[in-house]
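Worked example (supplementary).
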Amino acid sequence: MKFRDLKAQYQALKPQIDTAIQSVLDSSDFVLGSPVMELEEKLADYVGRKYCITCANGTDALQLALMSLDIGSTDVVFVPDFTFFATAGAVSILKAQIAFVDIDEKTFNISSKSLEKTIQRILLEGKYTPKAIITVDLFGLPANYAQIRKIADRYHLKIVEDAAQGFGGRIGNQRACSFGDIGTTSFFPAKPLGCYGDGGAIFTDDSQIADRLYSLRAQGRSKNSKYVHCEIGMNSRLDTLQAAILLEKLKAFEQYELNAVNQVAKWYTERLGVAVKTPFVPEHYYSSWAQYTIRLENTEARNKIQEELKKKEIPTMIYYPFALHQQTPYQGMGQSDTEFPATMHAVQTVLSLPIHPYMKKEEVDLVAKLILENL
Ligand SMILES: Cc1ncc(COP(=O)(O)O)c(C=O)c1O
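After joint prediction of all chains, the assembly is encoded as:
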């Protein structure tokens, strides 16, 4: 069994994808070719934002977003303590200050209570200026934007939505990547919408920010002249080949993959919900299931299940085994485990199970049966 079956997906889409790749090879227009612009239009349309600026990966997307907001060394960015390292790394590479925030026990997403408390602490300390919140739509589920937007407005903070895992999720009819002032995503192969290498995108409705991002992803070049540079930027573009592949994958994603992966999640929840803590999806929320993450009673119970599944060649993952404040570059910040009870609890008890749109009911049944037998 595969954790995320990219081979099955390729087999299902092979004719279209092979044709798309061949047409890029024939055109030899490998960098910023027409499929890139076509994809940007389609993605902006799908997400419901005016502008989409593609780039080289989801980490660059975050860094570029922060650069476009002029985040610098005296600014504080609030980051959930329970997410992939890149969410924090993108802040630190710009030498900006991080304040980690605990998560919500039920959703794994940033806790608005902990967020407000942390903002007030930073204000009281008076050393740095609160500037932005990076919300993460962890495991495919959008964060609680109704509450976070209120806090952002109250303290005049920008929201950068890290939807690297959240593309395709929604609240009501509003889609992920459109909740922040700027939204970012990743097209890493295992993501809800993945390409065949690295890729990323940034979304905004603000034309000035969009113009800045087009420039920043191309060495800070001016709008009208390739060799005139207005500021220091990056070299971060999406390859034409990846754009051509994504155009085909986006069709499948919209037509059936997102529904299919939701069906898989439903089967899991039906089978496991009686005995273990299955993912909590609030009313009107819709997940794109980057991960299906259950919680076990304690670390021993979690590790036992992982071992037993491994014996039957069923891969599982612990996302994430450590909180960000525990990682070496952040240990000197003086934030201790006790400030993050929900994060520490998650780190000790979570287990992510195989999930993807091509997973069969029998496979879900087998995983669920083994879990229930080993509780
Ligand atoms: C929450 C989150 N943010 C950012 C990233 C970075 O994306 P990429 O790997 O495309 O740089 C990831 C990728 O795993 C992620 O899960």
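Two points are worth noting when inspecting this output. Residues 255-373 form a domain with the Aspartate Aminotransferase, domain 1 fold (CATH 3.90.1150.10). The mean pLDDT is 98.
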